[in-house]
Amino acid sequence: MRIYILIGILVLGMTMIGAITGGIVSTFRGANLRKGFTYGVVTGLVLALATILLQRLMYSIHGGMVMDLVRPVLIELNGLVVALFGTFAVLTIFGVFYGLMHLGARSDSGDSPMDESRRNFFKRTAVVVPAVVGVTGSVAAFQGNNELQLRKIQLALKDRPEVLKGYKIGQLSDVHIGPFIGMDKLKEMVDAVVSEHPNRLVITGDLIDDLGYLDEVADYIDSRVKDFPDGIDYILGNHEYRVDVELVWKRLSQTKMHMYRNSHQQILGGSRPVYLVGMDYHFKDDVQEENVRLLDIAMKGIPDNGYPILLAHHPNYIPEAFRRHIPLTLSGHTHGGQINLWGTNLVPVYKPYWKGLYEEQGLFAYVSRGSGHWFPVRLNCPREVTVFTVL
């Protein structure tokens, strides 16, 4: 039921935004307002319905020629959807100025229209803004789905034990195997991490969106465990819950991965043994209280001289991790906002920890921009795989 409500909201919203945008363009160009509204409604409706129908189709096919043909079209449709929203936002701002200038012209000269130079400016704006924003949305969709950045980060962890010196941890997060991210992209991610010869790979949730890929993903990961001397570690994200968390957990538990669900495992020995702590995802309203409770469960049994590294899909664990003096926390979930302009994220995400490396009194936390995504449009925020080297 919920999905149909969301689809209805999207269709209605796109139709309204299309209508308003079409009306503004017609007003600027001095064209027929009714035609402008009509063209806008049709544009918004077609983009919304085509995007929804193609995305539903993608969940019924897995690989092959049809997938290869449909995926680029769906990616570009998503880019145009974002472009329509962007065009609406920019033209609305210009529309306010247009109205103020029109009122100013009337007050200065009775019923006289604004001068010809200003009118020509708005006519050009009605053409240039949709064209520029449309191209930007199209490029952001194509590039966002195809660009993958390998980030290499050196960490001077506080009070690190000698056994961790030179240790390398690779991270994938928010892979979202499904309509936009296929098995070819997963292979590209793993190959990029392997090129840095890490000791282990951690996957911090949201591995899969389409259960049709579950067996293939499980088999592929099993085939790559040998590339990481200390293995692969996995925790759940919210999207595993969205599709079928128990089915995902059962199937992936049959692989050679180390699985964590509010639990821990010793990964290195010595006088100060190193522990990996992995958190399950939760949906409790009282977030911090639940985080404290689950961390108490996950860390129970770690000795006082133990050195914990925390894996938590949602970065809302970071404040409590810092409070507990956990030296390193790896998370994801936010995708870095995906659309960043002038250093500002345009998409509401969890703050203050939403992208990149954070440090507090020698303790570190990292929030991945996501190795994949469920929505392909990215701007100044490419997909990433990360390799950490402990100094």
Question: What report would you give on this structure?
Answer:
The chain is of the alpha/beta class. Helices cover 48% and strands 17% of the residues. It has ten helices and 14 strands. The strands form three sheets. Strands 1-14-2-3-4-5 form a six-stranded mixed β-sheet. Strands 6-7-8-9-13-12 form a six-stranded mixed β-sheet. The chain has a two-stranded antiparallel ribbon with strand order 10-11. The N and C termini lie far apart (51 Å).
Quick overview of this protein structure:
By secondary structure, the chain is an alpha/beta fold. It has helices at residues 2-29, 33-58, 64-109, 116-146, 183-194, 214-224, 238-243, 245-252, 287-299, 318-323; strands spanning 148-155, 168-172, 200-204, 232-235, 258-259, 263-268, 274-278, 307-311, 328-331, 340-341, 344-345, 356-360, 363-367, 383-390.
Question: Mind sketching the topology for me?
Answer:
Blueprint: H1 2-29, H2 33-58, H3 64-109, H4 116-146, E1 148-155, E2 168-172, H5 183-194, E3 200-204, H6 214-224, E4 232-235, H7 238-243, H8 245-252, E5 258-259, E6 263-268, E7 274-278, H9 287-299, E8 307-311, H10 318-323, E9 328-331, E10 340-341, E11 344-345, E12 356-360, E13 363-367, E14 383-390
Parallel strand pairs: 1-14, 2-3, 3-4, 4-5, 7-8, 8-9, 9-13
Antiparallel strand pairs: 2-14, 6-7, 10-11, 12-13
Helix pairs in contact: 1-2, 1-3, 1-4, 2-3, 3-4
